[in-house]
Specification:
There is one protein chain. By secondary structure, the chain is an all-beta fold. The protein has one domain. It is about 0% helix and about 35% strand. It has a 4-stranded antiparallel β-sheet, with no helix packed on it. It is globular. The two termini are about 10 Å apart.
Length: about 45
């Protein structure tokens, strides 16, 4: 499933679909940011 910047898909690790940068959301209320490395908006949940 693909998630976008601004979505609140739940805590866990997410990988940028463009450059592979991995980020972690700490809570279920955290929103996905734009990728800090490439600025793209699409994310894939890792765990």
């Amino acid at each position: 499933m693909i998630h976008s910047t601004g979505d609140t898909p739940g805590k866990g690790y997410y990988s940028c679909r463009s450059c592979g940068k991995v980020i972690h959301l700490d809570t279920d209320e955290d929103a996905l940011p734009a990728c800090p490395r490439c600025g793209k908006a699409d994310w894939h949940k890792l765990s």
